Amino acid sequence: MTQQDPHLPKSSPVPSYLYLLDLDWIGRRSGEVKVEGALPVAFSAPPEFSGDPGMWTPEHLLVAATSSCLMTTFLAIAERSNLKVYSYRCRAFGRLEKVPGEGYRFTEISLAPEISIAAEDVEKALRVLGKAEKNCFISNSLRAKVKLEPHITPADGSGDNSSKCEAVRRGGSS
C-alpha cells in the first residue's frame, strides 16, 4: 500500500510517499512479503548463504526492483513524449562482492534493456532512456554502480506493444 507521508505537513511542496508491507518468517531462512491488494512473494536467502533453492532472494528482488523501476520510468516518460514502444525486455544482473572493510555489498547492477520502437524514433528513444536513467528512484537510492547497456531495435510496426522484463542472476563473484 502506498500512502502520503503523514509526517509531512499537508501543504508540503515536496511530496513524500510511504510504501508499506508486512513480512513474515515462514521457516529456515525464508519469509513472505505481503502488500495490501497484491499477491504475496515468498523469498529465501540464496543457496550460497544457506537458503532454499528455487525461491526469490532479497538479492534477486533488489536487481528486479532496479530493472523494473527503469522500465516503468522509461514507459512513463515515453508516454508523455508520445514515443510508441512495441516491446521492452531487460536482462539484468547484480554483482555482490566482499569489499574489504565493509563486508558483502552490491558493487554493480547492470541493466541491458532491449527496446523495440519505430525506426524514426531511435534517437528519441535514447533521449527518453537517458531521462529514465536519471530519474529512476531505485537507482538513485543505491550505492552500487548501475550500468545501462541498451539495445534499441527499430520495429516494423507489427509489435504487440507488450512490456516484458526479466531479471536474472549471472555468474560472477559471490
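[next item in queue]
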Amino acid sequence: MSRAPPSDRAMAEFSIKDRVTVDLVLTQLRKRDFAVLSTVGDGGEPHSAGVNYGVSEPGRDLAIYVMTRRHLQKARNVAANPAVSLVVPLMRRLLWFLPPPTIQLHGRAEILDWTDKGGTDVFRRFWMGRRILEAYRASHRRGETRICFLRITPDPLVSTYMVGYHIWEVRRRMESGAGRVVIPPGPPT
C-alpha cells in the first residue's frame, strides 16, 4: 500500500520544526546588535526606531536591553504603554541586496536606571555596546541625567522569516519561509 505524498502544509510544518529551533533563534539574536523597536504612545500612535541592543547571557532569564534616554519618544511610549515589538534583520554578507531574514518578537518593556547591572553587563559584552556605554558615561559627566535602559521581556512566541532557509528555497512559495518557536519558561541555554 503506497502512501500519499505529504501536503505542502505538512512539508512546511515539518521543515519549520526541523530548521527553526529555539537554539537557532537565540544564537541569531545574540550574534546581532541592531533591531527596529516599535512602541505605542499613550494616544495610540505607533513609533518605530532603529536601536542597538544586547541579549542576556545563556543561563539567565531572556531579556533584551536597549540603552536610551528618558525624554526620547521610545522611552516616553514605554512609560505610557509597555507593549513593544522588535524586528531583528539578519543581514547577509553575500546577497546583501536581497531582503534579509528576520526575527520578530513582542514583549513588555520596562525602564531601568542606566547603571542597572544586568544592562551594563550585557552592553560590556559587545563592541558597539561598549562604545554606547562610553558615550553615555561621557554625557553623564557633562550633566545628562536622563540616561536609562529599556529591558524587554519577550513573549514566548517568536516569529521568523527565512531564518534557516536559503533564498532559493522560498522563491516559489514565500510563505514557506515563515517559522515560529516558543521560548520555554525559565533561563534558556
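[queue empty]
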